[in-house]
Amino acid sequence: MESNLPLPILQTTSALDAAHLQARYEEIRSVYLSDRRPWVIGYSGGKDSTTALQLIWYALSKLPREKLTKPLYVISSDTLVETPKIVDYINVSLKRMDESAKQQGLPFTAHKVLPLLEKTFWVNLIGRGYPAPSKRFRWCTERLKIDPANRFILDRVAEFGEVVMVLGVRKSESATRAQVMSLHRINGSLLSRHTTLPNAFVYTPIEDFSVNDVWTYLLQAPSPWGNNNRDLVTMYRNAQAGECPLVVDKTTPSCGNSRFGCWVCTVVTRDSSMEAMIENGEEWLEPLLEYRNLLASTQDPSVKGQVREFKRRNGRVMTKADGGIVYGPYKLEVRKDFLRRLLEVQKRIRASGPNPNEQLITLPELQIIRRLWRTEAQDWEDSVPKIYREVIGDGTEWTSDEIPAFSMEERRTLDEICARHEVPSDMVAKLLDAERELQGMSRRSSVYQRIAAIFDEDWRSEEEVMNNIDVEAAS
After folding, report:
1. Which domains can be identified in the chain, with CATH numbers?
2. pLDDT of the chain along its 475 residues, tens only?
């Protein structure tokens, strides 16, 4: 039994005529039937991934159902900091895909992949104090995009032995992309080897499409899962955006200056995509842009010393060849300000945006941030619940540690005692926190290693460090 879904007939003078389209459908069916490897299809919600998925959907819908013997997993990566408007579009699309696939008897299932809680953007930036991502330190891509997609792929490899990853990428995107695609192509095959994952192969059904081919197809071929492709056109027009592709390895091209993607992205100089959305009537997004610009402002070399610690996360001071300091994580007070402002932005867009339950940061993330501040930053004030209550003002219950924590009153006492004895109070505070955290551990070696690591940190003041650098530079 075949689907009654009619194949679209394109009225076009472009290279993508009916014959080329029919040949592409035949190619997709041939690749699908050639082996038993399941397909993992990357879907970002943009024009290229939508075109690739539509082609596959239409092509396979014409196969007898008894030949559709292997699963087709559609995966979409949610970094948890995607522009809310795009998240809503993708969520609706994935739901429609699941419903339509069941109705049409097709083996498509839609899945959203997420970063691990310990690796989310807010846990790293607000919790650990990682600086806002830049071209020189783009710590976000691997944690938020590559790792979640790869975990899904590797789980399917473990289940089936091998998989085929289907990507909506085109050679005309860039010369680098064309070169990478050619480099990994298997001789005599339409598949390529995945650049990093063993037993994973890559199929790119629209690799020879131009931008004109993509839009021609989308505007004349109705979405088989019930979307309206003209909504996608409107979204691109309003955002003046290019697609931010599903990233599965480090060779995938990064998002350009205009893109759909993370609203907090500071790798680009300006977020012209969100600026355009705001100018085209989405004024409720303005608080997000203001917050994004706040993060970007901390990359200014003239303010780094004001917002970031002079020590690295390992407690050591790193200096440059010219005698300057390589600054470490954001100071705790700066992180507190970031959290407060983020919650205020969340409150504002709930009031002015389309979703009164919009969530920019989740409670599990806040719990991890709270723990990191308590254990790594000596936040004896326990600031996370306090800030949350002050801004949001609801009755969220915060778990209490089984081992009693120190308070700010005790911290002030500790500071006074350490000052009298000329001992760094931060060092003693960290030792006390370590002792509290390691209570009950049976292996003494772990305790000794932790204590030794604390003593090994540089406990000089910033003023002492800077004076020492000046002396070394003078000599």
Report:
1. 18-116+137-229 (3.40.50.620), 408-462 (no CATH)
2. 555 676 665 655 456 778 889 999 999 999 999 999 999 999 999 899 999 999 999 999 999 999 999 999 999 999 999 988 889 999 999 999 999 999 999 999 999 999 999 999 999 999 999 999 998 889 998 999 999 999 999 999 999 999 999 999 888 665 555 555 555 566 667 898 888 888 999 999 999 998 889 998 998 899 999 999 998 888 777 665 554 544 455 554 444 344 467 899 998 888 878 888 888 888 999 999 999 999 999 999 999 989 999 888 888 888 877 777 889 999 999 999 999 999 999 999 999 999 999 999 999 999 999 999 988 888 988 999 999 999 998 777 787 765 456 777 888 898 899 899 888 888 888 888 887 777 766 666 677 888 888 888 888 887 777 777 655 555 5
Distance, CA of 107 to CA of 410 (rounded, Å): 61
Torsion angles phi and psi, residue 202, rounded to 5? -125, 135
Separation of alpha carbons 69 and 33, rounded Å: 9
User: Pick from 195, 218, 196, 214: which is nearest to 205 by CA?
Assistant: 214
Looking at the whole model, is its pTM more than 0.70?
Answer: yes
- Other Cβ atoms less than 10 A from the Cβ of 2: the count is 11
φ, ψ dihedrals at 175, nearest 5°: -65, -35
The DSSP result for 135-161, as a single string, is SS---HHIIIIIHHHHHHHHHHHHHHS
The 3-state DSSP class for residue 351 equals helix
CB-CB contact of 462 with 424 (8 Å): no
**What is the rounded CA–CA span in Å between residue 416 and residue 429?**
12
Report which residue type is found at 81. Answer: V
Tokens of 39: 């397909």
d(CA 361, CA 127) in angstroms, rounded, equals 12
Token readout for 318 is 């790193």
